[in-house]
Protein: ABC transporter ATP-binding protein
Organism: Cellulomonas avistercoris
Amino acid sequence: MSALLSFQNITKEFVDKRSGRSVRALAGLDLDIHEREFVCVLGPSGCGKSTLLAAAAGNDTVTSGHVRFDGQVVERQHHSRGMVFQVGAVFPWLTAFENVCYGPKIRGIDRKVYEPKAREVLAAVGLSDFADHYPRQLSGGMRQRVAIARCLANEPRLLLMDEPFGALDAQTRLTLQDLLLQVRESYDGTVLFVTHDVDEAILLGDRVVVMSPRPGRVVLDIPIELPRPRDSSVETSDAFVTIKRRLRDAIAHAD
Ligand SMILES: Nc1ncnc2c1ncn2[C@@H]1O[C@H](COP(=O)(O)OP(=O)(O)OP(=O)(O)O)[C@@H](O)[C@H]1O
């Protein structure tokens, strides 16, 4: 089976504007992600996780190697690859509903099509009763739900999530993890999810990938064969604890 998203021997170098020195963020990274997989990426701070997602989204180019999506080299952004950041990218002057409608609307989709879809995804993220609220009237967790709904309204084949729950308090984070597990049951796309949280990666992922410190490359890539549907109770199982130990060990010896 060919990969939906493929990173082929990619290298990324940035030139630091102040010092003029080049910073190698990624070096010879190979990774294939297949249709419908939920792949979590773990790695130390600065190892190039966000750089990887930006390359997949088409927000930035790579220095060498190729990023392919559905066989085509990724050259620019496209609505089929949606991105959710740590702090929800939502328009403060639009209501939750208007935010969710925004993408399909500017692409010229018929209102009769995008409005019911927007209602459906707002319901999926538990915000039906807040459709007319502006972001300032919502909590951080609710704003993040809007950001997720905005992406889902575009029906992306690939959802790129860059520490989407990293800025939330612990309880809200658990709630949104559960929500994402539920959304996953109906969303038939592919997810590439960056996190610092080992528990979160195991709970959510079909596979977990560990990156080395900068310059980042893949040092471990393991399937998570815990049954689905999952909820947080899986975290006490022996299988979960064994996987967690293996991942922690890989992160500690990733150099
Ligand atoms: N625009 C840029 N200019 C110069 N260096 C950059 C730029 N963007 C990223 N870098 C550097 O590239 C490396 C990888 O950055 P990146 O943000 O991808 O790491 P990360 O793994 O996502 O980090 P974190 O876990 O802290 O979010 C870091 O050393 C960073 O300082």
Remarks:
- The chain has two domains: 5-80+157-252, 89-155.
- The beta strands are 5-15, 22-33, 38-42, 64-69, 72-73, 81-84, 158-162, 190-194, 207-211, 218-223.
